[in-house]
Amino acid sequence: MPANKKYLSSPFQRFLKLTAGFFGGYFVMLYLHLCLTKVFDKTDILITAYVTGFIAWGVLLLIAFLSRNGWIIWGIYLLLIAIFYSIFIYL
Amino acid sequence: MNLRRYNIYFNTHTISGIIICAILYVIFFAGSFSFFKNEINAWQKNESDKGGTYRNIVFDHLLDSIGRIKELKGRDIAFYMQHNGHASYVNIGTSQDTIIANKAKELAAKKELEEKKNRKANVEEGKKKKRGRGRRGAEDSMYFTYDLATKKPSDYSDSYTMGEFLYRLHFLAPLNQIGINIGRPFGYTLAGLVSFIFLFALISGLMLHWDKIKSNFFVFRPGNKWKTVWTDMHTALGVIGFPYQFMYALTGIVLIVNSVLIIPFSKYLYDGKEDEVYAALGYNDNTKYTYLYEPLTTAFNMGNFLDKVEKKWPNSHMNRIFIKNYGDKSMHVVALYDADIDKNFAGSGRLIYRVADDKILFEKSAAENGSYLDYMKGFIYRLHLADFGGYPVKIIYFVLGIMGCFVIISGILIWLVARDKNNIPKRKRIFNFWAANVFMASCLTMFPVTAMTFIAVKLATKVDQPFIFHVYFYSWLALGVFYIIRRNIGKTNLETLLLGSVLSLAVPIVNGIKTGNWIWETYRSGSNDILLVDLLWLSLGIIGLLIFKKMLQTAKKENANGKKVTGATTKSHTKSGNSSDGDSATGTGSPVPPKRAFALKNKPATEI
User: What is the band of B224 on the pLDDT scale with cuts at 50, 70, 90?
Assistant: First the structure.
C-alpha cells in the first residue's frame, strides 16, 4: 500500500520542498501576519496568529510538497516573503 | 481523484506519522491522564479535595512568616493560584534594594559554600543528593507551593505526585534534564516540533481521506484481514476524532512553543522585549517601578486589599497577584482576576494599586465583556485544559484522548503490514519490522507501567520526584527492552494488555487495602476525586480484560482457519505477492495468510 513512487519526486527535490515548506513557509506566514498589524491591533494579530499562523504554516508545508518543482516553490515563497516584508517595512 | 495529489498526501501523511508516532503516543497517553491531575493528587495523598476554603488574611500571615526568615523589603513577590483554588505557587524575587540584595548575596554565597562542602561529604559517602527545582543555587530567590487552606508550604520535589508527573511527562519535561543542549529546553522544543508535525499529518490525512469521508464513514469490517481492520480503525477513529485532535495539535503548539511567534513579533513590534509581549498578552506584569529607597509609611494589609477586590468583583477569582517593590514607597500591587467559568467563558480583570497613597491606577473588571484577546486566550486554554464543564467534559476528553492512542497504534500497524510484501527488499522489511517492534514495545508498555507506578506510590512510605522517576522510567525501560528483544508484536500487544488490565484492577484494591478508602467508602463520604481515580482504573481494567478475551477468541479462530486454508492458498501466495494492491480498502473475502520472510517463531509476527 505504500504510496506509488511514480508520483513522488527525487530525494533532492524532496529536500528542497521540505526546506521550502518548513523555513520558507514559516517566513511567509510570519510576514503575512506582520503585514496585518498595519491594519489591525498588533496584540490581536499576535493572538490570532496563534491559531491561523500554525495552520497556515502547516498548509504551506503541504503545498510545497504538492508543487512540481522544489526550485519553483522556493522561488514563489521567496517572492511572497519579499512582498510581505516590503509591505511591512516600507508601508 | 487526482492520483498525483493522492499519492503525495499519502506519502507525507505516512512519513510524518511514522516519525512522530511513539512520542505522540506518550503525549496522548500521559496527557489524557493529566485531565485528572488534581484528582490523582488527591488520590495519592488520600486527602479528598473538597475545595478547601481560606480567608484572605492568610496572605498576611504568610508574608509575616517569610519576613521573619528573609528581609522582604524591595522584593517582587508573585502568587500564582493553582487550579484547585486554594493553593498557590509563591515566587519571591531578589531585592531591588542594593544593600539588602548584597547582604543576601553574601549570605547565599556562604550557604552555597557550606552546601558544597556537605555535598562533597555526601558524595564521599556515596550518596548523591538530588536537588529539586525549588532551590536555585546562590540566588536569593524563593519558590514554593503554599496551601492556603491547610497553611502548609511544600517544596516542589517533595510534594511531587503522579498527577504532576504525568502532566509534565505529557509535554516531555523530563527530557529537559537529559543534557542535550540546544539553547532552549530540549523536551519542550521536541514536544512543540512533534505537535507541529502532528498538525501537518492531520491536515494531509484529512486531504487524503476527503473524497472517501462520506462513503467510508460507516465502514468497519472487523471480520476481515487484520490490515483492513486497522485501516478501518485508523480512518474511522481518525475521522471521528479529527476535530478534537486538530484542536489539540494546534493548542498544544501554542502552549509549548509560542515563542516561534513571540520572538519575531517582539523583535519587530516590541523592540525585542519579550517580557512586554507577555505583558501585552496579559500573562504577566513586568512593569518595573523605579525603586525610591524611601520606606513605605502606610501599612499594607494584603488580606484587606483582596477582600476589597473581591467585593468589587464578585463572580471572579484570583489568578495572579504581583507585589512590586515590597515595603518601598514605590510599592505597587497588580491583581489579575479571571471570571468564573460558568459566568463568563473568557474574562480577565486587572487592577493596579499604588500602596503609598491608596490609589487604584487601573481597573478592568473580569465581568466586563472580554476583549478579543480574552476570547482567543480563553478559547485556547479552556479547550486544551478541558476545565470548563466539570467531570463529564473531562471524561469525554479522556475517552477521545485514548482513542487518539488507538489511531496511533493502528497507524503503526498499517505502516508495517503494508510494507510486509515480497516485492520489498528484505533489508528494508527487516528495518521496518525492527522500527515497528520498537515503537509498539515502547508505546504499549506505558499502560502497565503507569498502572504499576500508581500502585507503587500507594505502597511506598515516602514519595518524591526521584522515586516516581525511578519507578516509572526504569520499569518502562525494562519492560520495553524485554518486548523489543522478544520481537513478537502480537505477544507484546496481548501481554501488555493483560498485564495492564490486571494491574489496573489492582489499583483500587491496593488503595482500599492500604487506606481503607474502598470505592464504596469514598462514594459514601462524597470524596468524588478519589472515587473517580479508582473508578477510572477499574473501568480501564474491565475494558482491557474484555478486549483481551475477544482477542484470544479471534486468535483461536484465526489459527483454526489458517490451518484449513494454507493448503488451498499456496498457489495464490506467489501471485498476490507481486501485485501490490494499491488500495488499502480492498477487503478480499478469503483470508490470505501474510507472507513473512522474517517471521519469527511460528506465530504471525504482526498479527494477534
Answer: low
Chain A partners within 8 Å of B12 (Cβ):
62, 65
Q: What would the grid cell of residue A62 be?
A: 503541504
CB B333 within 8 A of CB B350: no
Where exactly are the structural domains of chain B? 433-563+596-608
- 3-state SS, B280-307, equals HCCCCCCCCCCCCCCECCCCCCHHHHHH
Whole-angstrom Cα distance, residue B591 to residue B570? 12
Residue of B1, B2, B8 to mutate, testing the A interface (most A Cβ within 10 Å of its Cβ): B8
Q: In sequence order, which ranges of B313-389 are alpha helices (DSSP H)?
A: 372-385
DSSP 8-state class, residue B328: B
Which residues in chain B touch residue A88, judged by CB atoms under 8 angstroms apart?
Answer: 268
pLDDT attached to residue B132: 40
Q: Is B580 on the interface with A (CB under 8 A)?
A: yes
**Residue written as grid cell 478486549:** B547
Read off the pTM: 0.82
Mean pLDDT of B508-536: 89
Cβ of residue B346 closer than 8 Å to a chain A Cβ? no
Task: Using an 8 Å CB-CB cutoff, list chain A residues near B17.
Answer: none
> In the structure grid, which three cell numbers stand for residue B142, read together?
524563593
Radius of gyration of chain B (CA): 28
Interface test with A, best of B6, B232, B376, B584 (most A CBs within 10 A): B376
Contact A46 B265 (CB under 8 A): yes
Q: How confident is the model at residue B588 (pLDDT cuts 50, 70, 90)?
A: very low
Which chain A residues contact residue B280 at CB under 8 A?
A: 43, 46
Instruction: Tell which residue, B546, B592, B538, B585, has the closest CA to residue B570.
Output: B592
Q: Which of A1, A7, A57 sits opposite B584 (nearest CB)?
A: A1
Mean pLDDT of chain B: 80
B225 near A CB under 8 A: no
The tens digit of pLDDT for each residue in A37-56 reads 989 988 889 989 999 999 99
Surface-to-core class of residue B538, CB atoms within 10 Å of its CB (0-12 exposed, 13-18 middle, 19+ buried):
middle
Q: CB contact, 8 Å: A82 with chain B?
A: no
- Closest-CA residue of A relative to B579 is A1
C-alpha cell read off for B4: 498525483
B250 and A8 within 8 Å at the Cβ level: the answer is no
pLDDT in tens, B132-188: 444 444 457 777 888 777 777 776 666 788 988 999 999 998 888 887 777 788 999
Q: Which of B517, B223, B282, B536 is nearest to B395 (CA)?
A: B536
Strand B348-354 vs strand B142-147: parallel, antiparallel, or unpaired?
unpaired
Nearest chain A Cα distance for residue B291, angstroms: 29
For position B297, what pLDDT does the model report?
80
C-alpha cell at B66: 517569610
B333/B183: higher pLDDT = B333
ipTM of this complex prediction, to 2 decimal places: 0.95
Provide the residue ranges of all domains of chain A, joining segments of one domain with +. 11-90
Q: State pLDDT tens for residues B544-584.
A: 999 999 888 887 887 777 666 544 444 333 333 333 333 33
pLDDT of residue B565: 53
Any chain B CB within 8 A of the CB of A89? no
How close B581 comes to chain A (CA, Å)?
Answer: 6
